[in-house]
Design a protein that fits this description.
The structure is a homodimer of 223-residue chains. Chain A is elongated, with a radius of gyration of 19 Å. In chain A, helix 1 crosses helix 2. In chain A, strand 10 and strand 11 form a beta hairpin. Chain A is an alpha+beta fold and 223 residues long. The first copy, chain A, is built from nine helices and eleven strands. The first copy, chain A, is 47% helix and 23% strand. Chains A and B meet through helix 3, helix 4 and helix 5 of A and helix 3, helix 4 and helix 5 of B. Chain A binds a DNA duplex (30 and 30 nucleotides) through helix 8.
Chain lengths: 223, 223
DNA sequence: CGCTAGATTGAAACGAGTCAATTACGGTGG
DNA sequence: CCACCGTAATTGACTCGTTTCAATCTAGCG
C-alpha cells in the first residue's frame, strides 16, 4: 500500500472530503487499512473498540440485542460510511454489533487520532455532525413507522425506498430476508407472507432469494 | 436582560460550556432569549425554522406524524438541551413538531451564526456530536425495545428509568399518560391497563394523574 | 365552577407472533 | 465443478396481545 493511494482513499471519505493536502497526508499516515472477510464481527456489545472504522468497500450490518435476546437490525452501512463513533463520543463500551456482510475493505483510525482531528479540523466535525443528524432522523422515521404503521405498509414503503435508491423497478435486497424483517420490525414469517400477498396481487414478482421486480408501483404505494 | 446574565445563561448550556470569556460574550450578543407560554408550537413539519433553540427552563415535547396520521412522541427535552439542529445540518424543512409542555425560556440562535461557531470553535461541534451520538443511541434502544419487548416490559423499563433519574421511588410522569403511551409505542388504553395491572399486584401505586409510587422495585424489574 | 381533553374500563375483532414441518438456496469442501 | 450440508425461506394452523370501539369518569385549566 503506497502513501499515494491511501491518501486518495482518504480523500474519498465524506467526512475527510474537505481536508487540504497536508491534512490528508497526515490522516493517511494514521489510518490502518484492512480487508475483512465476509461475516467477520468487527466488534460486539461489551467490546471496547478504540477505532473509528471507515468503509472503503463492502457492507456492514449494525444490530443490537434486545433485553429478551432478539436481534434487531439497526442499519446497513456501505461505502463511505463510518462506524464505531459511539464508543469515543460517549465513552464506555459498545452496545451493539457490527458484522461484515461480504468481504470489505475497512480503514481504522484510533480514537485518540480522531479526537485530535475533531478538535483541529472543524470541517471533519461538521461532516460527522451532518451524518449523525441524518442517521438520527432516519432512525426516528423508522421508530414511528414501526409503531404507527402496520406490517404491510412498512414492507411497501421499504420496497419503494429501494426502488428509488436504485432508480429502477428491479430491486435487490441488501441483506437476507430474515435481516430485512428484523430491520422492519417484524418476524421473517410475516415478511414472507406479506411479500407472498403482494406477489399474489401481481404487484411484485420475486426472483431468486434477493431479487424483487416491482410490477405495479402505483398499487404498491397504496398499500 | 443584561449582558452579564445572558453570558451566564450561555455558559450554562452544555454545548457552550468550554468557550472562553471572549467567545461567550460573542455568543451572548447573537442569542435571542424569549419566554414561550405553555403549549406553544415552536415549529412544525414543513416549517423552515432557521434557529437552533436552547432550553433554559421548561420542557419541550418533540413528536412526529406517521404517514397514517398518528402522533409519535420522539423525546422530551429539558434544561440545557437544544433542538432544531436537523434543519441546518441537513438543510430543508423540519419533519417533526416541537411544542412547549409548560412555560419555557428558550434562546434562539440563527443558523448562520451557529454555522459560524461550529466552524470556528471545535469544542462546540464536539459537544454537539456527543449529544447527537447519545440521542442516536437512545433512539436505537427505543426502536429495539418497541419491536422486541412486549408492552408490559416497556412500561416497567420506563418506570425504572424515571426512578433512576429522580433517584427516588416516587416518580412523576414528565408528560401526559397519552404522550407517554405514544413514546412507549402503545395506545393510551394499553398503557392504562398495564399500570392498573401493576397497581393490582401492589408493585406501584398511582397518585393523581402524574404521580407513581414504586412499592416493589424488585418485582417491577422482573416484569 | 363548568367545560373539555385526558383517563379508565369493558367487550370484541384482528393482526402479528409462535410452533412446526417442508422446501430451497448458497457456500463449502471434496 | 458438483454434491452436500446448514441456514434461510416458505407455508399452515393456532394462540395471544394489542387495538379498536364505546361508554363513562375525572381532573385541571380557564
Amino acid at each position: 500500500m503506497h502513501e499515494h493511494s491511501l491518501e486518495h482513499l482518504v480523500s474519498l471519505v465524506p467526512i475527510f472530503a474537505k481536508l487540504d493536502a497536508d491534512e490528508l497526508r497526515e490522516v493517511a499516515t494514521r489510518v490502518r487499512p484492512r480487508v475483512h472477510p465476509r461475516g467477520e464481527q468487527l466488534y460486539g456489545a461489551g467490546d471496547d473498540n478504540p477505532y473509528l472504522m471507515i468503509i472503503h468497500s463492502g457492507w456492514v450490518k449494525v444490530s443490537r440485542l434486545t433485553e429478551s435476546g432478539h436481534e434487531q437490525v439497526i442499519r446497513v452501512l456501505g461505502v463511505g460510511d463510518f462506524l464505531g463513533e459511539a464508543t469515543f463520543m460517549g465513552g464506555g463500551t459498545a452496545d451493539h454489533y457490527a458484522v461484515t456482510l461480504e468481504e470489505s475493505e475497512i480503514c481504522s483510525l484510533h480514537r485518540d487520532d480522531m479526537r485530535d482531528y475533531l478538535s483541529r479540523s472543524p470541517s471533519v466535525a461538521y461532516k460527522m455532525l451532518e451524518t449523525l443528524s441524518k442517521r438520527l432522523g432516519s432512525t426516528e422515521v423508522q421508530l414511528s413507522s414501526v409503531t404507527g404503521e402496520e406490517a404491510g405498509h412498512r414492507v411497501a414503503s421499504y420496497l419503494m425506498r429501494l426502488a428509488q435508491e436504485s432508480k429502477s423497478n428491479r430491486v435487490t435486497l441488501p441483506i437476507s430476508k430474515k435481516d430485512v424483517a428484523s430491520y422492519l420490525g417484524m418476524k421473517p414469517e410475516t415478511f414472507s407472507r406479506r411479500l407472498a400477498r403482494l406477489e399474489e396481487a401481481d404487484v411484485v414478482r420475486l426472483s431468486g432469494n434477493r431479487g424483487i421486480d416491482i410490477l405495479n408501483p402505483h398499487e404498491l404505494s397504496r398499500s
